[in-house]
Amino acid sequence: MVVLQANRAYFDLKMDGKLDNPDQRICEDVSSFVRNTLDIIILISSQFLNIIGFTGVLWSIAPELVYILIGYSVLGTVVTVKGFGSRLMRLKFQALQREADFRYSLVRVRDNVESIAFYGGENHEAATIKKFLASMVANFREIILWNRHFSLFNNVYEYAMIIVPSIVIAPRYFSGEVQFGVISQTGFAFHRILNALSIIVFKFDSLSGLAAQTERLESLLSALDDHSGDVRLMKRHLGKTSSAIGLNIDNDGDDTPLLNMRPEHISSGLSSHTMKRETNVVNIVPEAVPSGYISREVGPGLVLKDVSILTPNLKTVLFTDLNFQLAPGESLLVMGPSGCGKSSLLRAIAGLWSRGSGILQSPLRSETFFLPQKPYMPLGTLRDQLLFPVLSSNSNASSMHSDGDLYEALEEVKLQELPARVGGLGAVKDWSDTLSAGEQQRLAFARLFLHSPKVAFLDEASSALDANNETRLYELLSKKLEAYVSVGHRTSLVKFHTFVLEFRDYHSWKFCHRNEFVSI
Ligand SMILES: Nc1ncnc2c1ncn2[C@@H]1O[C@H](COP(=O)(O)OP(=O)(O)OP(=O)(O)O)[C@@H](O)[C@H]1O
C-alpha cells in the first residue's frame, strides 16, 4: 500500500526501471520472509534452551567434549559460510528473480492476447517464455548441484562425530569409573548440543533462502527510501523557491498540491514573471541539462514560466523555456511530432514528473482530471468504471451520483445500450477486453463528465474515435468544463481550443491563438 500511495512511488519505481518485479517482492517475498523468520526465531530459541540444558550435563561428565563441540561447530560454520554461503545465497536470489520474470512473461501474454494473435506473434512469445523458463531451470540445476555438494559436506560433518562421545567415555566405563548408562547419556547430550551449535550448518538451506528474501526486500525498501529522499530533495528545493516568492509549503505528496499557496500569494507568485499573451516561437538548444526540479504553485489558471523538462532517465532535455498562460475558461491544444514531449508536459502538470526547471502554476489536483490515451479500466463493475477513481462502495459516491446520473453520462457518450448489453451497472467483466478501444475512450469521457472537474487534461483521449464521435465529445467538453488542455494530432481539434501549443523540431515550440494557427 505504501508503494501505491506514498508520493506515487509505484509510478516512479516503474519509470526508473531499476527494481525488478516489485509485485513479487511484495506478495511472495514478504510472506516467505515472515514465515521463515518466525521459524528461525522459534528454532534459535529451542536450540538455545538445548544448549543451556545439556551443556551442564555434558560438562559434569566430560568437559573436554564441550571444547571439542565448540571447536568443531566453529569449524563447520566457517566452512559452510565461506565455502557455500555466498554462492547458494546468490543462486537463491537469482531463483526468486527468474521465477518472477518467468511469471511476468506469462502475465504479459495473458494481458496482450489480442495483439499477439493479430501479429501472429505466438512463436516469438513462446521463444521469449522458453528463454525465461530455461534461465530459471538452469539456475535450479545449479542450486541442485550445490545442494548436492552441501549435503555431502553436511552428512560428513554430522556422522564424523557420531562415535566421538563413545570414544571419550569408553575407557572410563572399562575402568569402572562410570556406569553403562552414562555412555548413552553423554552421546545424547553431545548430539543435542552439536545440533544447537551447528544451527548454521544444519539449517543453511532455510537461512540462505531467508538471506535472499531479505536482500530483495531490503533493495525494495532502499528504492522506496531513495524515492522519498528524492521527494524530500524536491520539497527542499521547492521550499527554497517558494520562500523566495512567499509560498507556504505543505506537501504530503498525495492528492494535495506540492505547494499550497495562500490566496494573497496566488497573483503575486508570478508577478515578477509577467507573461505576454502573444505568438511565441522559441528555438533554443540548451547548453547544459538542467538538474533541478520544476517549482510548483497553485493558481486558478495554468501558467508555465521558463519550464524545461527532462526525460525520465535524466539524459535528454525535451524542451526548454516553455512559457504560456491560460486563464480560467481558456483551453489549449498541444500538438507536435511523436516523442517531442507532449505527454511529458502533461505528466509535469499532473505532478507525476518534476525533473527540469522553471515554475509551473496549476489548479489544485482535486480540481483536475486526467484522461490518458489508453483509459485505465479497473477490476470491478460497470459502475466502478464510471466512478473511478472514487470507490463505488464509498457512501459519498452513491450520494454524489445516482444510477440515473450514470445512465445519463453513458447516453452523452453514446453508450446508452451498454448496461443492457453487459447485464447492468453491476456487471463485472474484464473491461479492457470486453470493450473496444473507442468504447473505452467514450467511457472515459463519461467518467470525466461525471466528475466534472474545473480543468481536464486529455492525452490523445479521443484518438480511437471516429470524427463524428470526437466532434460531439469535444462540443460537450467545451460546454461542460471551465478549461481543458488536450494533446492531439488532428487539426480538426483546433476549433475546440482557445490556443495551440505546437512543438516543432528539437526544442522548438510555438504558442498562438487558434485563429493564428497554421499547420506546417
Ligand atoms: N521511462 C523513460 N525513459 C527514458 N526516456 C523516456 C521514458 N519515457 C519516455 N521517454 C522519452 O521521452 C520522450 C518524450 O516522450 P512523450 O511520451 O512525452 O512523447 P509524446 O510527444 O507524448 O509522444 P507521442 O505523440 O508518441 O505520444 C520520448 O522520446 C520518449 O522516448
UniProtKB/TrEMBL annotation:
UniProt keyword annotation of Transport present: yes
Family: Belongs to the ABC transporter superfamily. ABCD family. Peroxisomal fatty acyl CoA transporter (TC 3.A.1.203) subfamily.
Gene3D superfamilies tied to this protein: ABC transporter type 1, transmembrane domain, P-loop containing nucleotide triphosphate hydrolases
InterPro entries: AAA+_ATPase (IPR003593), ABC1_TM_dom (IPR011527), ABC1_TM_sf (IPR036640), ABC_transporter-like_ATP-bd (IPR003439), ABC_transporter-like_CS (IPR017871), ABC_transporter_sub-D (IPR050835), P-loop_NTPase (IPR027417)
Entry's Gene Ontology molecular function annotations: ABC-type transporter activity; ATP binding; ATP hydrolysis activity
Record's GO cellular component terms: membrane
Membrane-spanning segments: 40-59, 65-84, 156-174
PANTHER family xref list: ATP-BINDING CASSETTE TRANSPORTER, ATP-BINDING CASSETTE, SUB-FAMILY D MEMBER
The protein's name: Uncharacterized protein
Residues of the ABC transporter domain: 302-520
Keyword Iron part of the UniProt annotation: no
Organism (species): Physcomitrium patens (Spreading-leaved earth moss)
Highest taxon of source: Eukaryota
Domain ABC transmembrane type-1: 28-209
